[in-house]
Amino acid sequence: MSQVSLSIDGKEVAASEDMTILDAARRAGIPIPTVCHHEKLEPFGGCRLCTVEAEAGGRTSLVAACTHPVQQGLVVKTKSNQLDRIRKMLTEELLAHAPESDVLQQLAREYRADKDRFPREASFCILCGLCVRYCDEIKKKNAIGFVDRGPHREISFIPEIAAKECWTCKECFPLCPTSALQAAYVLMRSFTL
Ligand code: SF4
Fold it and tell me: What H or E segment, with its residue span, contains residue 14?
């Protein structure tokens, strides 16, 4: 795989061309916040917390570091006032769904997010898709999936598959950034609805 050279926060970073900005930054020890990313899973680009500024050919764009590929000469900024504002607002939106999440509270401290900015919709699920993707990509069981669309989108265990697989597995539960207990609750609920 060919190598490229890019700049991240003023540091020259070498990366192979199949890497994303997030891969290259993490390998160089430069932190970028994420919620929906997991190194064993395909990039998802759902939470947008990893938004960075990327300049190429004289044009600067806001891109998701977890899905945007590196390229020769790319100039990336992972920190700026604009990025702080974006991450603050995204965190506030997520906190409306899962105000008790440790992961989100940590982000709230970092970006000075107000957990009461948006009306509470305590669905607990922030649609990061980690459980859905883990079960699909790693377990290959598809025992849980997204249902419905738009504001009604949520995750749901598929009872016929979950009854056979989930009670003895529960591998996706600790991935949940809001609460592993919540995953257990959703599993229980799928058998009682
Ligand atoms: S607990 Fe169920 S949904 Fe989660 S990874 Fe295991 S089989 Fe898939």
Answer: strand 11-16
Task: Indicate which residue's Cα is closest to atom 2 of ligand 1.
Answer: 166
Nearest CA owner, ligand 1 atom 4: 172
**What is the whole-number distance in angstroms between the Cα of residue 136 and the centre of ligand 1?**
9
Class of domain 3-78: alpha beta
Q: How far apart are CA 20 and CA 64, in angstroms?
A: 9
Q: What is the per-residue pLDDT across 146-173, written as a single tens digit (0 to 9) for each?
A: 998 887 888 888 989 998 999 899 999 9
Q: How far apart are CA 76 and CA 141, in angstroms?
A: 38
pTM, two decimals, is: 0.89
Sequence ranges of the domains in the chain? 3-78, 80-122, 130-192
CA-wise closest residue to 104 among 94, 118, 117: 94
The response to whether residue 155 sits with its C-beta less than 6 Å from ligand 1 reads no
170 Cα: distance to centroid of ligand 1 (angstroms): 5
